[in-house]
Records
---
Amino acid sequence: MSSKLQKKKQYFLGEFEIIIKDYSNLYSFFQTKKEFRKAIGSINFLIKYDFLTNRLSLERLSIDNKTNDNVQRVIEQFNQENKFLKNRTDLRNLFNFIAEEL
């Protein structure tokens, strides 16, 4: 196999939108502290999966079509630390870190 072929990147990019009908149920599911529960109508996010390194990263996140520098920093830190969402607890922790920055 040529070295040119080995160096090519292979990614899956996926953009998703989650419409929130009852944000209080969302916060209850993730056990978010009441002081951080702000109204949310939709969550948009872009993920990138690298098939060669088997790594998933969250590239962009917007809430109600608005971006937030503090939220982007949480995402960048998450990606830099190469954390994995192995279970619901990991997902809950990431969600709550993001909710605190809204």
Note: Residues 88-100 form the longest helix (13 residues).
---
Amino acid sequence: MHFMTANTSLQALQLRHLEFLSERSKDDGYVLNTEQREAICIYLTRLDKLSIPARLRHLREAANFLLQQANPVDPPRVEQHWPARFLQ
């Protein structure tokens, strides 16, 4: 199982990820849009504040939940390795 350690700086991760998003176009092949990616960062920050380790499985489930809310009829899904790439 993969866990984010308590030493992981979620604020640094969030800032780095938002900088990355500002450099990418909205139609770059990513499944989640900017707002959904920001929601994932907020989710990670809340878990950190509650001292709950963020598991990759939970991150994937949260992303898939957001995708389902946006398109309930035929939602796309993130791949199994998406959470690890998201956290890079």
Note: Residues 10-87 form one domain.
---
Amino acid sequence: MHLRCALHCAMVLDMAKHTPDLIGSAEACRILRVNNSTLTRWVAAESVKAAHKLPGKNGAYLFERADIERLAVERAEQPA
């Protein structure tokens, strides 16, 4: 990993720790009650907007907590 990428990753991860409004994929999956592959598919299909993506092919996504919670409510309100 290049030094610039490492510094960017560290900065974004630090921002997520100190910004309670940003959550990682694991927390988003827990709130939405879906697995990570479903959330990744939704991001690729632009059904869910990631606030940030760490660099690299497998860079982690960060999400706005309010967006994920709003989507969870919408999904809960949909008929089964």
Note: The two ends are 45 Å apart (CA to CA).
